[in-house]
């Protein structure tokens, strides 16, 4: 028996990094997973994994998101992973950078939640997990202005959905990791003028002496996707109480 036996899970950005690790972890625990990404070639690497169906979807496109939702009679878990890390202060951030980051990091989650939430409400049961970051309203991080702003918005979106729909059987949480060793991070390091120094600077900030792995984040996501959350934290709801 898997921890997610029979659950239907849809997630974005599954071609690599946290999304890929989560898709595999969900499937290993018995879930039926629809793994989406815009990178069709990388996404194909999941085609042979039992329990995973892949589909190329641009989650910033409303028509593609709505078409994806129509393919599912119901969804137990929606995991919004798609995101982009923009480097720089507010003075480095052009309007195009701001719009692109907010579109990928926030609007995509808005579109996915709005498309899939009605299906959850029909069943009076559902679970949304959003990918945020410590670089958000949690902590100010140097040279991450628009990225941190977008992830703070994700936290706000998550709390709003949790407050509005908790009593209708929907729970909504976000994951806020620190530095995670992913292909995206490695690519950003290599793009720096001095990749070796950039890597040393990142490692100097890791109090544990190492970066978190995508698989470790995926373990947390499995827990949030499971029914163990309800068992571990029975909620005693009172008027105006919001538990996120």
Tell me, briefly, the overall form.
globular
Secondary structure class reads: alpha/beta
Strand content: 5-15%
Strand order of the largest sheet: 3-2-1-4-5-6
Determine Rg (CA atoms, Å).
18 Å
Mean pLDDT: 91
- The CATH architecture name reads 3-Layer(aba) Sandwich
CATH class (first level) name: Alpha Beta
Number of strands: 8
Total DSSP helices = 9
> What percentage of residues falls in helices of 4 or more residues?
40-55%
Question: How far from one another are the termini?
Answer: 28 Å
CATH fold-level topology: Rossmann fold
Count of spatially separate domains: 1
Question: What profile does the largest beta sheet have?
Answer: 6 strands, parallel
CATH superfamily: NAD(P)-binding Rossmann-like Domain
Write the element-wise H/E pattern from the N-terminal end onward. EHEHEHEHEHEEHHEHH
Low confidence ranges: 234-244
Would you write up a description of this structure?
The chain has a single domain, classed as Rossmann fold (3-Layer(aba) Sandwich), CATH 3.40.50. The relative contact order is 0.14. The chain starts with 7 loop residues before the first strand and ends in a 12-residue tail after the last helix. The protein is 45% helix and 14% strand. Strands 3-2-1-4-5-6 form a 6-stranded parallel beta sheet, sandwiched between helices. A two-stranded parallel sheet has the order 7-8. The protein is globular, with a radius of gyration of 18 Å. It has 244 residues and is α/β, with parallel strands linked by helices.
